[in-house]
From TrEMBL:
Pfam families: tRNA-synt_2e, tRNA_synt_2f. The lineage of its organism: Eukaryota, Viridiplantae, Streptophyta, Embryophyta, Tracheophyta. This is glycine--tRNA ligase. It comes from Aegilops tauschii subsp. strangulata. Its EC number is 6.1.1.14. The keyword Nucleotide-binding applies. GO terms for biological process: glycyl-tRNA aminoacylation. It catalyses: tRNA(Gly) + glycine + ATP = glycyl-tRNA(Gly) + AMP + diphosphate. InterPro entries: aa-tRNA-synth_II/BPL/LPL, Gly-tRNA-synth_bsu, Gly-tRNA-synth_heterodimer, Gly-tRNA_ligase_asu. GO terms for cellular component: chloroplast stroma; mitochondrion.
Amino acid sequence: NKGAGALTFQQAIQRLQEYWASVGCAVMQCSNTEVGAGTMNPLTFLRVLGPEPWNVAYVEPSVRPDDSRYGDNPNRLQRHTQFQVILKPDPGNSQDLFLHSLSALGINVREHDIRFVEDNWESPVLGAWGLGWEVWMDGMEITQFTYFQQSGSLPLLPVSVEITYGLERILMSLQGVDHFKKIQYTEGITYGELFLENEKEMSAYYLEHANVDHIQKHFDDFEEEARSLLSLGLPIPAYDQVLKASHAFNILDSRGFVGVTERARYFGRMRSLARQCSQLWLKTREEIGYPLGTYQEANLVYPHVSEKLSRKEVLGQAQTFVLEIGTEELPPHDVVEATEQLEKSLVQILGKRRLSHGKVHTYGTPRRLAVVVENLCLKQMEEEVELRGPPVAKAFDQEGKPTKAAEGFCRKNNVPVDSLYKKIDGKTEYIYARVKESARYADEVLSEDLPTIISGISFPKSMRWNSNIVFSRPVRWIMALHGDLVVPFSFAGISSGSQSCGLRNSSLANFKVETAESYLHTVEKAGIVIDVQERRAKILDDSSTLARGVDGDFIAPDSLLQEVVNLVEAPVPILGRYDDSFLELPKDVLTTVMQKHQRYFPVTSKSTGDLLPYFITVANGSISEEVVRKGNEAVLRARYEDAKFFYKMDTQKNLSEFRGQLKSILFHEKLGTMLDKMARVENVVAELTLVLGINEGVIPVIKDAAALAMSDLSTSIVTEFTSLAGIMARHYALRDGLPEEVHLLPTLNRES
């Protein structure tokens, strides 16, 4: 329902305010100082600190001088509008609340491809970081969703959920327009009519006319004022000065006057101030008695297993066991690593606990890790074990009577004293006893061990969401069945059961699994392709069919394919198209945008191998293919417009003209900039040509190559797409008429 009937910009803000107010958020106002993101508003930065609950929603005009484009780029603005939500503590259903907010905006979440794509967020200036996702709608990032772990260099407890909407992007999609200036702000007035001139003039200021000397002095003044206010015990006005200093830095950065070394120093100065503001804010809140109350940590103690479980007493009959750990969307590489660890840990525990079993199978998707064990025994095997006690010298006194040490050993292991016997171990004689370990039910044993198995899964980056439980992303449900019996235990405040969750865009929100044996069939009926190899095969087969339809092949490097396979639970490949005019851009630019930024498969001609103006995206679940196709095409068009903008800027100069800009790129703190490095390289090359007796005809080529080496690091394209370093040097060198031997040959192994 794009275009006609879509919300205006103003109505969208009103809808979000009404929705979040209805679920308990205070609707508040934006900062009165320029901020680069809603995160920097004290309503977020300061309020996420400490134990006070805090639920808030507000609009935040976010000013980023480096994104200045004079209003020409359809998606980039120096001042864009965020809608910021903070939920503290995490309510446990924050993703569902967010999806309902999209419905409040008139977005049909069952038609669109809504995806949570890994995003590890960090703000060096604020000393803040968190884990979460970019939320994509039909390939376009519309929201950042983050579980804050640290702010002001201080760990956070409770953890806060931050949801940051990009309103211009969302409204462009809702209204079906291809430029921010065409957005209907309110009835009869467009966004461009209100703000386009502002974009033009502020872009001119930030990119051309801002007086660097003045701005540098402003930064120093703001820093000094912040320190003065901190010494007076005033964290709120001090933090306001930190925001002003941050904006001054952003202006300097947009003017190109901040080198890498200076950047690190500026960041360090601002981070120190932000930390001091945070510490003083916390101290002040404590002194005034936490007026908003304090968060009470949930009791996450694992329940003791009941001895009166209802079992089908069929002794000796082995049954299937299944464990499914339901999570919010895991990063693709975590899916792979976690399933491997899960299988290894469970097999070890089953062996250690004397639980016989058949084959073990593991499965993983972004939202579930599962292990299925065939023919798991009902009970442990009985076993007689030999237990070693204390040395004989300490177990019996001089009269041969048992000491308290011997009696304690017997009492602990429930054996009579007269059953003890002696054995020499090494050079010492000990007392021993034989003890029969009784056969316990498998579910009793697993109830004790499964929490340990889950908590033992390690990830490159883990997060907290309640208490100090850590995992890659929040655990939201646990299903554990042995036959038709629930294996009862708890992890991270979640009790196990027989319920699982369906696809996010499915009408089947959750479903019951009757028996472990029926698990795979039940999941399949819910539309979930749980086996990674099946998902891979479907993606390859369907993509091949789509590419053949335009007489092409598709490019799917293994690393990209594995990522895409683990970004979806029910893959739906879709063919999209882009304008032929973009094929004028270098092929490497086009494929980098498709593969690295959008996770698309490029399509090439079967006959020539050249790029065709098509791509394949892999959606998730039962969606409207037409809606998703158009959305992804619009996103790629915007990405290519950006690349076109950068490429146009670069081609206004020769490659040699970028060499001087290497002075702003630090190579090593003790070795200087990249320009310093290249000067050393030239000197070394000159000496080597003499030592090696290089043919005089080749020397000019060598000198040209040394002089231009790595010059493309300062080009706009490589700044935006860093993986193109060296690749663009070759392109620009050939464009400038330099011989092919001159260009830098990247030494990295690149997948085609």
